[in-house]
Amino acid sequence: MKQSRARVPTMVLKVAVIGAGASGLTSIKGCLEEGLEPTCFESSHDIGGVWRFKENPEPGRANIYESVIINSSKEMMAYSDFPPPVEFANNMHHSELLQYLRLYVQAFRLQQHIQFQTTVVSVRQTVDFAVSGQWEVETKNAENQKEMRVFDAVIVCTGHFTQPHLPLSDFIGIGSFKGRTLHSWEYRSAEGMQGKNVVVIGIGNSGGDLAVDISRVAKKVYLSTRSGGWVVSRIGQGGLPNDLFGTSRMDLIKSKLFASRINKALEKKLNEALDHTLYGLRPKHGFFAQIPVVNDDLPSRIISGRVQVKPNVKEFFGSSVVFEDETIIDQVDVVVFATGYNYSFPFLPSELQIKCDYRLQLYKHIFPPGLAHPTLAVVGFIHALGAVNPLSEMQVCPPCRLQRLWRRRYRKTPQP
Question: In terms of Cα–Cα distance, which of 123, 17, 25, 41 is closest to 347?
Fold first, then answer.
């Protein structure tokens, strides 16, 4: 008789997922699909991360303003196996996107793997990390009670937008300014800005959105830009979402092979729709050098005089703002700094937070280099042309599959 081999249960690897935003949710799902056991730690009481609108800013958490509409179409921002409901708008309001994430959680039964109001205090290697590749994860709950647990792997999904970058030292005389100052992180709506003179500093997507939003009620909005920006509409040929065009794999290959030629063609097409030089928006950089400003309303607000584009701010004095072209705007009531964000991973060991060109050093934008074992990954911490949802979903595959392979270290098959 042939002797059969006894089957020994395979050890299930435990993975800590930090953050229950768009990247964290797809990380939980990716772990489950690879036979791993995820535990997601979310410091707030709900999912959604940046896409959950908060009436009051919450320190250490990403925030959005009331009028936010996503720049990517629902077709391009969807997870690969979960299309948004047909009745949702092509470019969804943030409330619809949050609802989409709730449906995703419900469909794949992810909520049972999330521990809400649990903050990760520290993540550090175990004493035997060289052999086990494991991590000690210390957490703190709403009652300030701490707990230490050991995980076989960690996936960090806390994103970019938690620490506002407010470079006040770069602006001479800002301490003497008599008006109100705030960062775009604090902005909720244009309430209280009726009839005011407002300066918005920065022309990223937030700066463009805020200038348009405030200009609907303000006396005048001045949009200060240091470098300009390429302005792109959400609406493309025939009224279809613009991001459905030119984004196939072949288009991307062409953009790499013929970058200079395609860059010039794109800039020519954009200038045919909106002469960026005439509007004071033309940047020194090429189209692919930075993420473009996605805004349908900014050109109309400029041509109607509701928004006036200005160069970089030179200095403040009293209630006046001096720009680098030596023009002066008096009686400025509010200055909004749309100056971006600093990122922070305070729970990670300092040796994993080494920066290169102001960015965290990550192999393939996922793995900190130099680790003895690839058991820590950062997902969703990437700037690219397109929505973060599918990007995070693609990033999750390598770490989850690596963990499945890593599991073989623990498998023991008895001899016949």
Answer: 123
**Whose CA is closest to 39, among 139, 133, 162?**
139
Whether the CB-CB separation of 36 and 59 falls below 8 Å is answered with: no
Identify the pLDDT of residue 186: 94
Environment class of 104 (CB within 10 Å of its CB; exposed 0-12, middle 13-18, buried 19+): buried
Task: Assess whether pLDDT exceeds 50 at residue 414.
Answer: no
Higher pLDDT: 258 or 14? It is 14
Residue 82 corresponds to which tokens in the numbers above?
A: 């979960």
Is the pLDDT assigned to residue 28 strictly greater than 60? Answer: yes
Q: Which residues are within 8 A (CB) of 132 and not within 5 positions of it... i.e. 6 or more apart?
A: 126, 152
Can you read off the two tokens belonging to residue 360? Answer: 């965290």
The pTM of this model reads 0.90
pLDDT digits (tens, 9 = 90+) for 37-58: 999 999 999 999 999 998 888 8
328-329, strands of its sheet edge to edge:
313-317, 320-323, 328-329
The two structure tokens encoding residue 406? 């890593």
State how far the Cα of 51 lies from the Cα of 93, in Å rounded to an integer.
10
What's the rounded Cα separation, in Å, for the pair 72 and 294?
Answer: 9
Q: Which domains does the chain have, with CATH numbers?
A: 14-162+343-410 (3.50.50.60), 166-337 (3.50.50.60)
Check whether 8 has a pLDDT greater than 80: no
Let me know: does 124 contact 135? Beta carbons within 8 Å.
yes
pLDDT, one tens digit per residue, over 305-339 is 999 999 999 999 999 999 999 999 999 999 999 99
Distance CA 92, CA 70 (A): 6
Spatial distance between the Cα atoms of 221 and 84, rounded to a whole number of angstroms:
36
Structural contact between residues 337 and 169, judged by C-beta atoms closer than 8 angstroms: no
CB 283 within 8 A of CB 227: yes
